[in-house]
Design goal:
This protein has a domain of about 70 residues. The N and C termini lie far apart (about 60 Å). The chain is flat, with a radius of gyration of 22 Å. By secondary structure, it is mainly beta. The protein has 1 helix and 5 strands; from the N terminus they run E-E-H-E-E-E. Strands 2-1-5 form a 3-stranded antiparallel beta sheet, with helices on one face. Helices cover about 5% and strands about 35% of the residues.
């Protein structure tokens, strides 16, 4: 029997950005910090010379929910051969490159 565990935080005190009663799934890695400091949610992002992101730490209740996973149907689906991608040396495995957008000012001396 397969299971999946979710940790759900419910906001106890809200504001104009996030309302009381809103629920968020948090990761197991954030559970301890959320217990100690509250639910950390982004409220504002500033760009420009002084880039920064502002977060609020909301008082919240936490609960652990364990779900049982049972497959209902399994059907094979054809695909995933990447016919239209450039291939690596063996001719079967495709590759992809992601490069962040760069501003010309990043290269300016």
């Amino acid at each position: 029997m397969d299971t999946i565990t979710r940790y759900i935080a419910t906001i106890l005190v809200g504001d104009k950005y996030h309302k009381e009663g809103e629920e968020y799934i948090i990761s197991e890695w954030n559970l301890e910090k959320t217990q100690k400091y509250g639910l950390r949610l982004e409220v504002e992002s500033r760009t420009g010379i002084a880039e920064c992101t502002i977060y609020h730490l909301y008082p919240c209740s936490l609960r652990k929910v364990v779900y049982e996973l049972n497959p209902i149907e399994e059907t094979p689906i054809e695909g995933g051969d990447r016919e239209h991608q450039e291939k690596t040396g063996c001719g079967k495995i495709g590759h992809d490159i992601w490069e962040p957008e760069r501003d010309w000012r990043d290269r300016w001396p």
